[in-house]
């Protein structure tokens, strides 16, 4: 019998740890690895471990390192609440969190505020050469590595294969127009009664920033340019925002979406209440469960998100591990990150959760491909995905985006006025200090 990926990961733990010696960095100043000293207990502040796999991997580490125990601290579900907890911890210069599981878009903010230590790369540090290049950039700030990519993600279109087939539609939509046409056909059938056409995260959370960036990017616009200058007050950006506004106004997206977060949307789709759903890869494993928790198991598939003229512009997601500048036992933390970044641990996590790995070779792994046949689509989406706006004042930036876009979606302001106001706010937030 073939050993399970978790068994292989645990069996190889001693070898992995043997390769993780020393502080692994250069000395002095802000050099990579400087200050990565101290050994002993550590904590990992991260999202909820719903599969239990993270805890199993931590347990394996703890059995091998009795004097350097790792403990998981689970943070709230909403990304905004997670970030607030970490910012509060940093502002207090608290050592409560040793390792931070950061949303990929927080790297610039945390590094710019000197809340993280620079991580060493190379033989004695972290090996980023085996990772998807797109993921490596999410852990860098001004060309230096501050966070190690652990999971990746890109927006995908989940769709009900059974409903499309009964409506005589043989392929998922590539454009917004095709998506609306498919929805109209499905809604005319008995099976389509009570099923919402489309859902993306438009509640006033971090997910709304992602949805806005994808819609605007798909229409050829952007929120912040490559030089950090706001670029949201353009016809292209308005076309993208208008897509979301019209979807709500015309009833193609339920008004209830204005109050749903990512988990609320997931439950909505899994309950069989949506035909098309823009969501992250983690939903695949949960929606495919046959334990009764999902009404769409075996009746859905994924495709690239659509745009106005073809495939849309997905945004990059995922989580990276960073070391708090205020923590003790940073040498142990670095070793733990090396351990968790190894392909065996990433494979175990991906098999259990359908989260996208960052190790490139895993996208050709037979076990993962057998369970998740959408991996080639996901890899392409990650390689082509664009970033969300990255800024040292990210909290203010994302809050401004959410406020402006939510105001337009709820009908409190026009899309044009929302973008004009957002341009001005972003100008103040992104101005040089």
UniProtKB/TrEMBL annotation:
Coiled coil: none
One Pfam family from the record: SBP_bac_8
Region forming the signal peptide: 1-21
Superkingdom in the source lineage: Bacteria
Keywords linked to the UniProt accession: Signal, Transport
Record-stated family: Belongs to the bacterial solute-binding protein 1 family.
Protein name, per record: ABC transporter substrate-binding protein
């Amino acid at each position: 019998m073939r050993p399970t990926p978790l068994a292989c990961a645990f069996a190889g733990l001693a070898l992995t740890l043997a390769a993780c010696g020393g502080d692994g960095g250069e000395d002095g100043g802000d050099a990579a690895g400087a200050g990565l000293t101290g050994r002993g207990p550590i904590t990992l502040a991260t999202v909820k471990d719903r599969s239990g796999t993270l805890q199993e991997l931590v347990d394996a580490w703890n059995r091998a390192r009795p004097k350097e125990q790792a403990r998981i601290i689970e943070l709230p579900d909403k990304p905004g609440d997670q970030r607030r907890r970490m910012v509060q911890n940093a502002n207090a210069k608290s050592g409560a969190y040793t390792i931070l599981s950061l949303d990929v878009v927080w790297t610039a903010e945390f590094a710019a505020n000197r809340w993280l230590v620079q991580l060493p790369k190379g033989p004695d540090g972290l090996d980023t050469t085996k990772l998807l290049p797109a993921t490596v950039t999410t852990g860098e700030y001004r060309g230096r590595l501050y966070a190690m990519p652990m999971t990746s993600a890109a927006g995908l279109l989940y769709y009900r294969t059974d409903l499309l087939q009964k409506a005589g539609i043989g392929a998922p939509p590539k454009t917004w127009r095709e998506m609306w046409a498919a929805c109209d056909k499905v809604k005319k059938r008995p099976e389509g009664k009570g099923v919402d056409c489309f859902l993306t995260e438009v509640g006033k959370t971090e997910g709304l920033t992602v949805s806005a960036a994808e819609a605007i990017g798909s229409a050829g616009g952007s929120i912040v340019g490559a030089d950090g200058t706001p670029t949201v007050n353009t016809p292209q950006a308005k076309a993208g925002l208008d897509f979301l506004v019209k979807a709500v106004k015309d009833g193609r997206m339920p008004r209830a979406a204005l109050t749903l977060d990512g988990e609320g949307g997931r439950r909505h789709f899994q309950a069989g209440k949506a035909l098309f759903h823009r969501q992250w890869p983690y939903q695949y494993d949960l929606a495919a469960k046959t334990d009764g928790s999902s009404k769409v198991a075996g009746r859905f598939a994924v495709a690239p998100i659509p745009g106005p003229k073809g495939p849309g512009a997905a945004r990059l997601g995922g989580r990276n591990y960073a070391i708090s500048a205020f923590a003790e036992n940073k040498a142990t933390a670095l070793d733990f990150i090396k351990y968790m970044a190894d392909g065996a641990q990433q494979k175990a996590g991906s098999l259990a959760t359908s989260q996208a790995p960052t190790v490139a070779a895993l996208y050709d792994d037979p076990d993962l491909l057998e369970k998740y046949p959408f991996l080639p689509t996901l890899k392409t989406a990650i390689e082509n995905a664009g970033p969300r706006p990255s800024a040292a004042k990210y909290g203010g930036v994302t809050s401004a985006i959410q406020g402006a876009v939510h105001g337009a979606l709820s009908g409190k302001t026009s899309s044009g006025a929302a973008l004009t106001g957002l341009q001005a706010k972003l100008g103040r937030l992104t101005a040089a200090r």
